[in-house]
Each structure stands twice: as C-alpha cells, then as structure tokens.
Amino acid sequence: METIVTEVARPAGAPQVIPLYASRPAAGFPAPGDDLVERVLDINDLVVKNPASTFFVRVEGDSMTGAGIFSGDVLVVDRAVDAKDGHIVVAAVNGEMVVKRLRSETPSKGLNPLLQLVSENENYQPITIGEGEECYIWGVVVGSIRQF
Fold first, then answer.
1. Residue 51 DSSP symbol
2. Full-model pTM
3. 17 contact partners, CB below 8 Å, separation of at least 6
4. Mind telling me the catalytic residues?
C-alpha cells in the first residue's frame, strides 16, 4: 500500500517534559533512580525546530520502508524548509496526501523541470508530475517518531 497520510496534528503548545538520565541503561533489570536525572527535556525541543511551521502526520503503508518510514509512524514535517531534490516530502497529488522522496531534474533551456515523487520500495512506481496534474508540497519530513 502506498504510504499515505492518515492524521495531521500540530505540536502541543505546552512543554512536554521528560527526564533525561545521566547514566546509559544496560538491557537488564535495574531501573535508574531519581538522583541520576541529569535534566529534563521538552520533547518539542527535540523534534520541532520551527514551531510556527511544523506539524505532525501519522502515516499508513509500506512504500517508504527503505527510508525507515513504517506504517503507524508519526512524521515531523516542516513547511519552512525548502523542498529540494532528494528530500522526503509530504505532498498532495490529485487530492491524495502521500509521503515520497522528491526528485527534480532540470531539462534543456526553456522546458519545465521534471518532478517525480519516488517510493523507497521497489514494488511501487514513481509518480511523475505532468502538465495539468495537481501537486502541492506540504512540507519536508525532518524527523520520525515510532512506538515499539
């Protein structure tokens, strides 16, 4: 299934702080104590660089697994970043929001650039944006959040 956007959200306005422990945990039983808390982190500070232009999308599908994007992931998307060749973008193509890698090629003088939205899964063909087709780049994917 193509990787599509199933949900869109904005970052919370209030800080979302979590403790950052000074010691790196081993994969065993002992739990870190409160005395080892180095500082607290605001989760928004970790993933949001431009709050006014950032939003989150939850995705579904397997067309971007080669880029490490899996069904159910929440992507951090920044509209302030200029979309360039090679960036992973959220785009609306003929009314459907998809996540793809942007490929642009400038042909000879006087011709429009060739735009393609490419999957990171060989089972899917690139989407070539032709004349008269509707394509709008919503933003550049700058991060991913996954629950195990």
1. G
2. 0.77
3. 40, 41, 42, 43
4. 63, 100
